[in-house]
Design goal:
The protein is mainly beta. The chain has four domains: 92 residues, Immunoglobulins (Immunoglobulin-like, Sandwich), CATH 2.60.40; 91 residues, Immunoglobulin-like (Sandwich), CATH 2.60.40.1120; 98 residues, Immunoglobulin-like, CATH 2.60.40; 89 residues, Carboxypeptidase-like, regulatory domain (Immunoglobulin-like, Sandwich), CATH 2.60.40. The protein has three helices and 32 strands. The longest helix has 22 residues. The chain is rod-shaped and about 145 Å long.
C-alpha cells in the first residue's frame, strides 16, 4: 500500500510538468514587422501604403502561412511567429505583387523582433510594354517630319507617314516604382538631333501614350541681289535697300534672319534645309517703303548646312508719283520763258515751266530729291536770270500726286 501511495505524487508531478511544458509552447517565438511604401497620385515621391495584404510563408518545416494588412501608416506586424526562415509577399490594388524572383526573406529568432527594411511597391503601369505614338513636326514650319527614324528608349521606328511613328516600348519602373521616363531621339538629316522638345516621354504598360515632338531644322543659306527696275543707282547710293523687309509665310522671322547690304543690294536669309529624301519649298516676300511688294514662290531650299544663290536678281518695282509744283520769281511773276525750267538733280530730269507750273512723271517716293528751278525775271534790275531750289522726299498719299510748295527764285 505504501508503494501505491508513493506512486500518486510522482504521477501528479509528471502531470504538472507535462502541463507546464504544454503551456510554454510559443514562448520561444519571435515577431516580424515592417513598413510598405508606394507611389501615390498627388503625392511627391512615395508614401505609406495602407490596405496592402502582406503574406508570410515559412520556408522551414513545418510550412506555415500567415497574412495581415498594412495600417494607415503602411505598418504591418506578425506576432508569435515560429523561428526560422520566412518569405514575405505583398499584394495591393494598383501595385505589382512582389516578384517571385526577388522575395523578401526574413529570419525569425526566438523572442526577438525581425525588422524588415522598408518595402516599396511598383505601379502596375511600370512594368511590361506600352505603345508610344510620336508625332514629329518641324519647329519652324510646323510641317510633319516624315522619313525619319524615331527612337524611344531601346525601341525604334522609321518612315513615319505624315510624321507619325508608332513604337512598342518596354516599360520599367523608376526608383519610386513609377513608370520611368525615356529619351526621345529623332534622326533625320534635315533636322538637328538633340533639339527634340519635349525630349522624354513616360510609356505606360498596356496603354497608348501620344506625344508631339518639335525638332529644329538644319539651317541652309540662300543668297541673292536686290535690284530696282529703275533708279537702281539712286537707291544704292541712298542705301535704300537696307530698309527692305524680307519675310516668309512659312518661316519664323527669327529663324529667317535676313541680312541686307544697302549699298549693293546683296542679301542672305536662313531657311530650313532640304534632305536627300525630300525637298523643302518656301516663299519670300520683299516689301518696303518706296517699292511695290514682290513675292517669290515655290523656291527650293538647299541641303542643310549648304549655301545656294538665287538663279536671278530680285527685281523690285519702285512706287512712283507725279511730282508737281509752281515757281515764283522774286518780283512775284510766274516764269514762262523759253529757257525757264525745273530740274530733278538726282534723276537728271528737266522739264519746261508752263505758266510757272511744272510736272514730273514717275518720280520715286521715299527718296530725298533736289528740285532746282531756273527762271528769267524781266522785272529784275541787272541780270534777269534767277534760280531757287527745295529739298523734298515724295510720298504716297493715295492720289498718285505729290505737290511741292512754290519755289521762289532769287
Amino acid at each position: 500500500m505504501m508503494r501505491n501511495t508513493a506512486l500518486v505524487p510522482l504521477l501528479l508531478l509528471g502531470a504538472l510538468l507535462g502541463a507546464g511544458c504544454e503551456g510554454d509552447a510559443g514562448v520561444g517565438d519571435g515577431r516580424i514587422q515592417g513598413t510598405v511604401l508606394a507611389p501615390r497620385a498627388g503625392v511627391s515621391g512615395i508614401a505609406p501604403a495602407s490596405g496592402v495584404t502582406v503574406q508570410a510563408s515559412r520556408i522551414d518545416d513545418p510550412p506555415l502561412t500567415r497574412s495581415t494588412t498594412t495600417d494607415v501608416y503602411g505598418h504591418f506586424q506578425f506576432d508569435k511567429v515560429p523561428t526560422g526562415r520566412w518569405e514575405l509577399s505583398f499584394f495591393g490594388n494598383g501595385f505589382q505583387a512582389t516578384p517571385s524572383n526577388r522575395p523578401v526573406t526574413v529570419f525569425v529568432e526566438s523572442k526577438r523582433t525581425s525588422q524588415v527594411p522598408d518595402v516599396t511597391l511598383s505601379s502596375v503601369f511600370a512594368s511590361g510594354a506600352g505603345v508610344v505614338v510620336v508625332n514629329v513636326v518641324d519647329a519652324v514650319t510646323g510641317e510633319p517630319v516624315s522619313n525619319a527614324t524615331v527612337t524611344v528608349g531601346v525601341s525604334s521606328a522609321s518612315g513615319g507617314s505624315s510624321g507619325s511613328y508608332t513604337l512598342n516600348v518596354p516599360v520599367s519602373p523608376d526608383s519610386l516604382g513609377q513608370p520611368a521616363s525615356q529619351r526621345i531621339l529623332v534622326n533625320d538629316e534635315a533636322h538637328l538631333q538633340g533639339s527634340e522638345q519635349p525630349s522624354t516621354v513616360i510609356p505606360i504598360a498596356n496603354q497608348v501614350v501620344s506625344v508631339t515632338v518639335r525638332v529644329q531644322p538644319g539651317q541652309a543659306v540662300v543668297q541673292g541681289v536686290l535690284r530696282a527696275s529703275a533708279f537702281d543707282d539712286l537707291y544704292r547710293q541712298a542705301g535704300t535697300y537696307s530698309r527692305i523687309s524680307i519675310t516668309s509665310d512659312s518661316i519664323d522671322p527669327s529663324f529667317l534672319n535676313p541680312v541686307i547690304d544697302g549699298g549693293t543690294g546683296r542679301f542672305s536669309v536662313r531657311v530650313p534645309g532640304s534632305s536627300s529624301a525630300s525637298s523643302r519649298r518656301f516663299g519670300l516676300v520683299f516689301s518696303g517703303q518706296g517699292f511695290l511688294v514682290k513675292v517669290l514662290s515655290n523656291l527650293v531650299a538647299p541641303r542643310a548646312n549648304q549655301t545656294a544663290n538665287l538663279s536671278s536678281d530680285v527685281i523690285l518695282e519702285p512706287a512712283t508719283v507725279t511730282l508737281e509744283g509752281t515757281v515764283v520769281t522774286s518780283s512775284g511773276s510766274l516764269p514762262a520763258g523759253q529757257f525757264d525750267q525745273v530740274t530733278l538733280l538726282e534723276l537728271g530730269q528737266t522739264v519746261a515751266l508752263l505758266n510757272g507750273s511744272f510736272f514730273f512723271l514717275r518720280v520715286p517716293v521715299a527718296i530725298p530729291l533736289t528740285v532746282r528751278a531756273t527762271a528769267t525775271n524781266p522785272f529784275r534790275a541787272g541780270s534777269p536770270n534767277e534760280s531757287g531750289f527745295v529739298r523734298v522726299t515724295p510720298a504716297e498719299n493715295g492720289s498718285g500726286r505729290f505737290v511741292v510748295g512754290a519755289i521762289s527764285t532769287r
